[in-house]
Structures are given as C-alpha cells and as structure tokens.
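Usage example:
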Amino acid sequence: MRRLPVYFLLDTSGSMYGTSIVALNNSLSEMIGTLRQDPQAIESVWISIITFDITAKEIIPLSSLDSFQLPEITCPRSGPTHTGEALSLLHSKVISDIKKGSATEKGDWKPLLFLFTDGSPSDKKLYRDITPQIKALNFGIIVGCAAGALSDDSMLKEICDHVVHLDTADASTLKQFFKWVSETIDHGNKSMGTGEKVGIPPPPTDINLVI
Amino acid sequence: MTTKEYIELLFKSKGITVPMNLVTKFQEFVDDTSNIESVKIILENQMGLLKNWKIKNRIVDITNQQIIIPNALMGDSYNAKIDTEKFNLKDLIISDIEGLTDTGLKFNTASLVIEGIPILSGDFKLKLLYRLQDEAEDSVLNEKIIPLLVMVDPKTLWKNLPSNKDDIYWKEDNVSVSDKLGTKTIVVSSKRGRSHQNVGSFRDDDFSFKHFDSNGWSIVCVSDGAGSYSLSRKGSQIACNAVIEYFEANLNTENQTNFELKISEYFKSKDEVLKKEIDGLTAQNLYKAVLYAHNKIKENADAMFKSNPVLFNNTKLKDPIDYYHSTLVFTLYKKYDLGYVLLTFSVGDCPVAVMNKEKTETKMLNWIDVGEFGGGTRFVTQPEIFHSTQNPMVSRFSLNIVDDFSYLFLMSDGIYDPKFEVEANLEKNEKWIEFLADLEGKNEDNSKIDFNSENKEIANQLSTWMDFWSKGNHDDRTLAVIF
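Running the assembly step on the lines above writes:
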C-alpha cells in the first residue's frame, strides 16, 4: 500500500496566544475528522505535525490517520518564531520517514507540506540556508499559509509552490482553510508524470492566493 | 517530635526565651496534660494540611497527564487496559469509567480493561473516576478525562456513485469479456476503481484485442489513463483502438512478408545475427504503431480543444494532449509451426508476462516505468518518450520466441500494485504461480476462475474476482489473461 505523507508545520509562537490557538486547534481537529470520513484518506494519508515557537517540536510523528489522537496544541504568551528550526527538523524527519520506490519496496506518494504561520521567521538565516534543502526533498506540493497582517508572504514565497493569505486567524477563516487543505490532500494520490507537482483546488472566498 | 521540642520551637519562632529561674515552671507547662493534647492536635492538623496539599498536587498532575489508549474500530472487538504501571498511576484506586453508555463498550473494574465491540463511532471523552490511596475512602471521587476515538470501518464508507452518462467522454464503468483469440482464448476485465466509484468519476483504464484472420496475428492492448489528468479516460481508449487500427491496415504489407520470412528462417537456423535483424524490424514496425497512437490522441485532443476549450482549464498544462496522458502496453503474438512469436511494446507501469507451458518459468516481456515516488510514470502521450536518451525508445520493444505458453498476462497497476506490490516480485516465478492460484480460487472471497476455453461464465468469474479487497489499493483494475 502506498502512503501519502502529509506534513504540517504550525506556528505556535507568542502571537498565536489566545483565540488564534483555540481556532487552530478546533479547525485542525475538524479537518482530521473530515479526513477520517474519507475512506480513500483513511487508507492512505499519514500525518505528521511539527509546531514551532522558540523551539521546534514534532508533536505527531508520521502516523496513519487512524492511529493517532490529536493532542491540544498550546503556545507560550510571547516569544520568537523559529520557522527555520522547524524546517530543519522537518528535513531530518522527511529523510528518515519517506520510503522511496525501489525494486523491492513500494514508494510513498510524494509528501505534501503545509506551512502555517502568523508572523515572519525570527531565524531568517537558518530559514534561507535550509530552503534549498527542503526544495530538494521533492514534495508533491508545498503550500504556505500566512495568517494576519504581520505574516510575511514574500518569505513564504521563497519556499512554497503556493502561498495563501488569510486576513485573520479566526475560527471561520481557519475552518475554511483547513477544509481546503483536506481537498488538496485529496489530489495527492493520483498518477502523474515523473517530476510533476500536485494540483491545488481553487481556494475558498476568504482565502487569497498570493500571486 | 516531643511536646517539649514542639513548644521550644514555637517559643523560639516567637522570640521567647525561658530564663534559667523558670526552667522548672517550663517543665511543668510541658507536662501539662491539656498542653500535651494541644500539641498533639496541632501536629496532627499540620500533617493533615501537608497531606492534603500533596493530594491536590497529585490530582493536578494526573489531570494534566496525557493518557492515550488505542483507537477503536467500529464493529471490531476492542480491548484496552488502563495500565496503572505504564501510565504511572499506581497510587490510584480506580472505581469506574463513565461515558461508555450505548457505545457497545464496557469497563471491567476488576481487570481495568475497556472491552467490547463498539457500535457507535466518534470522539468520546471518557471520565475515569478514582481516588488516591491517600484519600479517605468516603472522599468525593476525582475525574480524569481519557479521549477515546472510535473510527468507522473505512470499508463501509466507500460509496458507489454512477458516472455521468451524459459526459462527452463517458464510458462503461465495468467491462468484462472473453473470446477466442487465434489459437488461444482471452478473458479480460476492466473495472472502475473504488476511488472513482466513491466520487462518481470515470474509469480511466482501457483495453482492446483483435485476431487478424488474414495473417494469424493476435493483439492485446492495455492502457491506463493517468488519474491527475482530466481527459485521460479518452486517451487510454484512443490508444488501445488506434493500435488495432494501425495493424489492421499495416500487417499485410510487403515489409510484413519480409518479417515473416525472417522469422521462419530463424526458427530453423537460430542464428543470432538474424535475431538481431528481427529485433530491429520489430522495433521499426511497432514504433510506427505507437507513433500512430500518439498522433491519433493528439489529433483528438487538438480537435476537442478547438470545439470545447472550457475542458482545458488547467493552467499547469501546456498542450491539449497533456490532458489525455495514458500509459500503453500491447503484445502481438502469432503461432508458427515451431512456436510462438511475441512482440511487445510498453510505456508506463503495466506489466506483461508470459508463463511457459510447464509453469516453471514466467518471463516479463517489458520493463515498467516507475519513479522514486508513487504515481510517477511515463505516458504514450509524452513526445519526449520518442527521443529519450535515458530510456531509449528501442528498449521499450521486445521480441520473444517461445515453444508455447500456458498464460499471457497483461495488467494495469490497479492489479499489479495489490498483487505484486513491487517490481522485484514480477521477476519471481513463484509470485506468478501464487497469482495464478489466487485467480483459480485461493483467495479470501473464494472467487474462482475456471480457465477453460469452453467456460461460458469465464468473463463473469473474472469480473467477480476483480472486486477483491486490498487496503489502500482502489485504482481502476484491468487484467487480460490469454490461455
């Protein structure tokens, strides 16, 4: 059976404290619930969640959709956004997690990456150093989601195939965003030519695709 | 601590010293029964306060601790122990778990096991009721929330929505047929995968076959339209039909006669130089058929683009033909006095193999295009396959000469993935023997195909067999067996 590995990098820096982190928890949990109603997803999607604030933590190691429980994601009241460190952790995880096809092993589908942030990286140098290595990992798609006025679309553009911008990280916008994420995941396990990228469905109204 | 020690400490903390002349009085004070009683009560109360504080602390720790029990599957027997040792909860006296009413599960208070067969799905917040060993037996029970997820069996979630018959490229969801094919019999089935049934989309796979009475050649084609490309179902159909069309028109030409003569000669001489020459001719002949198929798809795509441009709305695709991406594999075979000649072409990931009469050897007639990642393959619709230096076109053709064969198999990855899993297994005869045994009934569903040319039910039998369950493998399935 082929796995479709889906990585989430979620910003839990101080600016997320309060209603935003509550909204993130709710919409993430709703998205997992939606995927768990989709037989195709249950049998193929594997999820990993990495959070980042002053440090990066793998809170869910790559697990099949039916095998894990979503913990509550918390964040400190204040503190920096170590996006670079999160990408660096992601890099090492992808290297060890992903099964490449060979004559004796079934390869995974190309992994998908969703990077959610409401700020800009505090560790810009590490972020820029790690970017080419992340690109070399051959993700099926890298989607960046910048939420709120303080987030930095252009930094995300450096690494992502698509960047969407949410005006606020409130409950209804995040809910729409994660619904769209689950639709995008649905596109991830189809045959395509070598070297092709996964397509994305059109984003809903409150989500602006950054060109 | 003695009464005296306690009073001395108390006095000291209040800055009172007992002068030498009052030492005897102090001793009397210490020995006073009511004072001894007071100190005893104070010490007991202090101990009580400390203990209560420890209990409160411990309860907060327990409330914050994550206790994760395995997820349950609806309809599947479940058994999860609240392992107090593992969770570091040995100081708990557990009295019950609330929240299991109507779930089909119950909590065994003696063994601390949640067990039963869940009949409801969802996220449940179970309440573990307990007291700490240090708490009084009649104290109010504490509550600890333990999440339990009961998943729905994915098998029950698959829908079977019909495909839209009014669609411009509609095709039959499932086709299964059998026929005589020259000296052999063919049974072939092509079925829409569960992933397509679930959303009401179309079967992307296709096949075709034909026997040419005039020259004795038979041909079987299988093509798999790529899931990511919206019109690939038509690409696969055109590919299969075009190859037949090409050979219908071109198998009787002068070239062909020359080819036949050389083969007859080779059967007698087994001359390797001649074999090389025949290899070359095979590639030349088949190349034209492949190019014809490619061009046919291109013609159709360009015409459709003109008449119906709204179908071509994917900004990432440059050319109309890209919407039709399909793999293609075909084998031509013919019986000669001294054996069978099999000519094969392949682009994509559809294996073709031939099993000898004694079933001691199964030979792959093609190599398959598989990438590092799932789904990464190549298509007959890609112009670059015709002049790739990495995978030269000539390597895609093969000529095989065998005395006879028991089975010739052509299949799409919808069969190959669940049944062979990896490429290496395609090279193993025992895997093919297993596969054949599976077809003949050695499977969970007891679906059995009787490979007998007189069997009128054979197409239905294969069609039933094709519905086998394989977790995560829900692509279209196409299998052609020639015997």
